């Protein structure tokens, strides 16, 4: 009973302390609402919803969601979330970005991370994202102070429904005492990583119905410019293939992408094994249990770790992703296509892997002969602006195409060997194993149906086609309609 009254008293105090900041926040909301109603930041549908919400803002039920309400699976977890800032809009977005943050002994990078997400996104991209910040510290004064900073700096994003800040009360957490001492970790380390698993589980469940996809980030991350556009290209290129987790950083649980429909299962999984191992290890097991055997990681990385001090004891953490690129807009479109070759394939290094942007995937074939080919046949004819093909790898620099030509074709027909183009034009010759052609759409007078690599002289060396990169003159999403 003492524990129960202590918990109730703590929440009563929290409500008392939060009353004046809440009223101040509400006034700020109304001011910014009037200021931005005529601004492009707020879409027409969102304006109507926001107006209705603010008219009823005095109703505290608007600021509380039960876990049951936000999930569509049979298991029940009796958790109540508190909105500290922002209100979800009824329209599903394309992507939710989830951040969980606790008080650090040294440094705080959360505001920089939120700023990077918004600053590195275009206006069109901002329409399709929602950022959810879970302030997961039990220090309620810290949460209150931080949410005031967030609302001051990002008021217009909160009003537009692009930024939410939530908190899960301490009493809903399972016991963090007497945990398993796996891997000989000290007790405080076990407590830290176990609580972190629960923090993420509660965040994942909250985000289940907000969007079609979910991106997991840490609270000390810098984003690549136009990262959402790059993400959409990759997601589009994976249509028709099975995946559970796509990775856009090689560090920890930064840049891990999921289907939102999988979030309830992942949340249950983290809660079930919260004291067994760190979160990033559990994510690997979850992916494997859902039958994605291999890592699917893309290059360049879209997110970079920027924190110098860890959230655990303020220890130094200098980890950096050397595959990160500040500008991701140059990622190729690679419209959907079939790939065929008559070159003898080595093991499982098949033709499709040359068309993929996944790290360490490439085509590898036995020595080609004059006249051998490697052809890409698009599902739909398209305008191509740029083509870049790279052969060989750093550790197999002689497995390049020594003599070859690049061709583009049209007038595809069905044959016994499958669909083929009947007319080709040569764009150029390979030099040093590589070729890049710009302004392709200005050099030819037709929409392209096929891209073909032709071997013009036999070679003794094997052939690696590391990457085939194609850029279109229109968004790849339009090509799939």
TrEMBL record:
Keywords: Glycosyltransferase, Transferase. Pathway: Protein modification; protein glycosylation. It comes from the Eukaryota. Residues 61-324 form the MGAT4 conserved region domain. Coiled coil: none annotated. The keyword Membrane does not apply. Pfam families: MGAT4_cons, MGAT4A_C. GO terms for biological process: protein N-linked glycosylation. One of its GO terms (molecular function) is acetylglucosaminyltransferase activity. Residues 339-466 form the MGAT4 A/B/C C-terminal domain. PANTHER family: ALPHA-1,3-MANNOSYL-GLYCOPROTEIN 4-BETA-N-ACETYLGLUCOSAMINYLTRANSFERASE C (PTHR12062:SF14), N-ACETYLGLUCOSAMINYLTRANSFERASE VI (PTHR12062). This is MGAT4 family member C. It comes from Seriola lalandi dorsalis.
């Amino acid at each position: 009973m003492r524990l129960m009254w202590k918990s109730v008293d703590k929440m009563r105090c929290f409500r008392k302390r939060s009353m004046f900041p809440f009223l101040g926040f509400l006034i700020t909301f109304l001011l910014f609402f009037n200021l931005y109603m005529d601004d492009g930041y707020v879409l027409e549908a969102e304006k109507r919803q926001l107006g209705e919400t603010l008219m009823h803002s005095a109703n505290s039920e608007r600021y509380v969601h039960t876990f049951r309400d936000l999930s569509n699976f049979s298991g029940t977890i009796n958790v109540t979330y508190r909105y500290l800032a922002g209100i979800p809009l009824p329209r599903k977005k394309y992507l939710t970005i989830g951040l969980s943050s606790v008080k650090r002994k040294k440094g705080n990078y959360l505001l920089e991370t939120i700023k990077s997400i918004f600053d590195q996104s275009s206006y069109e991209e901002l329409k399709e994202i929602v950022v959810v910040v879970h302030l997961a510290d039990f220090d309620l004064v810290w949460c209150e102070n931080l949410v005031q900073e967030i609302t001051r700096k990002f008021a217009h994003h909160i009003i537009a429904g692009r930024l939410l800040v939530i908190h899960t009360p301490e009493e809903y957490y399972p016991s963090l005492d007497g945990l398993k001492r796996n891997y000989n970790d000290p007790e405080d380390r076990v407590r830290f990583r176990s609580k972190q698993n629960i923090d993420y589980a509660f965040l994942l469940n909250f985000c289940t119905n907000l969007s079609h996809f979910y991106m997991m980030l840490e609270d000390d991350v810098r984003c690549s410019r136009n990262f959402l556009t790059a993400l959409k290209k990759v997601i589009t290129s994976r249509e028709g293939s099975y995946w559970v987790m796509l990775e856009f950083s090689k560090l920890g649980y930064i840049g891990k992408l999921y289907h939102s429909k999988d979030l309830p299962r992942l949340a249950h999984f983290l809660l079930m094994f919260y004291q067994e191992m760190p979160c990033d290890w559990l994510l690997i097991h979850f992916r494997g249990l859902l039958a994605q055997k291999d890592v699917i990681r893309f290059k360049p990385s879209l997110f970079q770790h920027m924190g110098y001090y860890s959230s655990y004891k303020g220890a130094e953490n200098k980890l950096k992703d050397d595959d990160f690129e500040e500008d991701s807009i140059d990622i190729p479109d690679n419209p959907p296509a079939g790939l065929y070759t008559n070159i003898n394939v080595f093991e499982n290094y098949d033709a499709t892997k040359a068309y993929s942007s996944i790290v360490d995937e490439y085509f590898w074939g036995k020595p080609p002969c004059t006249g051998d080919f490697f052809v890409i046949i698009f599902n739909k004819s398209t305008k191509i602006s740029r083509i870049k093909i790279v052969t060989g790898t750093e550790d197999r620099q002689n497995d390049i195409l020594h003599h070859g030509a690049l061709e583009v074709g049209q007038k595809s027909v069905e044959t016994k060997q499958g669909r083929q183009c009947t007319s080709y034009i040569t764009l150029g010759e390979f030099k040093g194993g590589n070729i890049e052609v710009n302004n392709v759409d200005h050099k030819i007078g037709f929409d392209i149906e096929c891209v073909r690599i032709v071997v013009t002289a036999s070679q003794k060396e094997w052939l690696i086609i590391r990457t085939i990169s194609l850029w279109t003159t229109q968004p790849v999403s339009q090509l799939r309609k």
